[in-house]
């Protein structure tokens, strides 16, 4: 039996995503391998004897050819074994798991607020195109995207945490806290992230819908006597989903992999901080594992965007 | 006397143009037009592009497309002046009392929504009918309009039905809310001639059955003669003549109307074929990469020096693909092409420069075929440099000669395409093709985007040039009137095959094959009642079989 063309397309995308992830793993491995410096040296310090260094290298398998080491590493990753951290000898999967959970928690709440907000603001901007609400929305969001995120962070800390005492300035969370306590703790970082990602998504929503608004079928809707908001919602938005989802996914990816500065400002125990700590300690296995997870998140979210675009196209969904 | 359904008084419409680097200029599109339309009657608005037909039609819904603004006058619909009303109450009129059928149903249907939802939307939104009632009505209209599977066609998406069917769905969309007036804006212009006749008949029957009044806008007088009670002739935003259909068609008063009625009166005596064709197409079969069916199937045609072969057929019949194969843009999978006694290389890239020079092309859209940032002089001068190495004075002299040949006077050399009219642009494209001194010019629908009178001028020019330069034309068109006007021989194409081929007199005289008969009998004639006669004739024939 013939596969529905949409299923076929999606299967192709998934296969492509896996291939891409594999390529990314090669790049990460090669990249970390050609870094200058020597892990054994950095573990043992400058005063280590040559014999101790040689032993250490043998122990870590650093003398094996790169291809052997790559496949040993990849094999471990596929079985869920990300290796052990060189610096403290702990299992990477364990320590990374908690961090990843925290990062996703922060990203989820930032997305839950920023995505609907950005799209609604985009719709409003189209409704009042070139009038003051449109200009105000653009001015405010472009201002917040232009200010460095740490700066927004400190400004919000000053007003919200110190002057108004609404939320804490430090976003330390742990498993013993209730959801309410956690949300209270991350309130300011969520605000910062929302302000950072809002403009991009809002502008894209506005541009994508304005583009659709040029279409003849919008005129048809106008000549049916429909109101502007109804036209935007019912006739323009469904045809603008693909570009909007694309930019939303890019921003979600950013919320997961790009928030290290915000984590540092608020002392939030997420992936970014963990990665930066271990980069400075030359802990290569941790860097590799984090890099791979970031790559997987990026590829996964873009894959979702691709699939949504395919599903949003009525020509593909309902072939002739 | 009862008040007319639509009464327009002193309608003035304008727009603002923004020429780059200059102050915005106000343009007048319609300068004070008066007309009336009684309930249940059909008024045809006819004129060339830019005459303001669509603009007037949309003004009946108090709508200005793009930056178009209604600047003055009165527009009374059902006893109230809608041009004075606020947007809120105008919106209650649109889609309820007055509805609209556009030229391109394909563009006017939302690709993301089912046909039924779009057809019933206005009726439900305007509280004319409940959802169930509206859907019943829609199915009934689908049936009246002769759509296949009227019960279920509404569940399809716009891309799942053909262009002609979608145009009927658009008519159903307009009739569903039970309006008093429908504005039909060139509803059949984008359709193939064989599809047009059915859609036209369906629209006419639906108008008669529902008793709705209509404004029927078109540039084709033969079409409007079939459907309207009265005709208003417009030229550059002003009314030229107004009268009953009978009077306008059979007894036009104004010069302009007479020109419109007698358009396509070019007569061209067919030349006899020579012994050595300039182009011989033998057994050409072609398909596009990645597809599994042949777009062209064993095509055999000849073109003789200084003569015209017209290739005629519907969209999708393979006409333009044949041109692509001849020019080498699409190498054929089988067959060969002989040009001027030598076999041509299949692919463009392996043809010598003289082969390229001797075969030139003119396209449908003169706009996109010219670089908007080059002057006419540069555009025509380019082939002179490229093929003949002409420079300086010699080049200037030749450019002026060519401009004289295409009947454009002095001062055109330094103009940009944007400063030319549609017909002038096409003339420049002709000059550019002639500059290469070709033996064959492939003309791909070169008059299709032009108004009838302008198109006539282009055809006359092409015929004159053929006499002077002894150039052969491969003339691709879907318009049979054009074919009659200029062809020496004709190839009728249908689904990738040449179904009829020979000298014009032979191809256009009976006995016909089925397809050619259908094609020829579908061309609207400038005669009242032609539509009914033809439809009736076809019914009798199919009943007879």
Automatic annotation (TrEMBL), chain A:
Span of the signal peptide: none
UniProt membrane topology term: Multi-pass membrane protein
InterPro entries: BPD_transp_1_N (IPR045621), MetI-like (IPR000515), MetI-like_sf (IPR035906)
Keyword annotations of the record: Cell membrane, Membrane, Transmembrane, Transmembrane helix, Transport
Gene3D superfamilies assigned: MetI-like
Main location: membrane
A molecular-function term among this protein's GO annotations: dipeptide transmembrane transporter activity
Stored SUPFAM superfamilies: MetI-like
Gene Ontology CC annotations of this record: plasma membrane
Domain ABC transmembrane type-1 span(s) in chain numbering: 100-305
PANTHER family membership: DIPEPTIDE TRANSPORT SYSTEM PERMEASE PROTEIN DPPB-RELATED (PTHR43163)
Record-given protein name: ABC transmembrane type-1 domain-containing protein
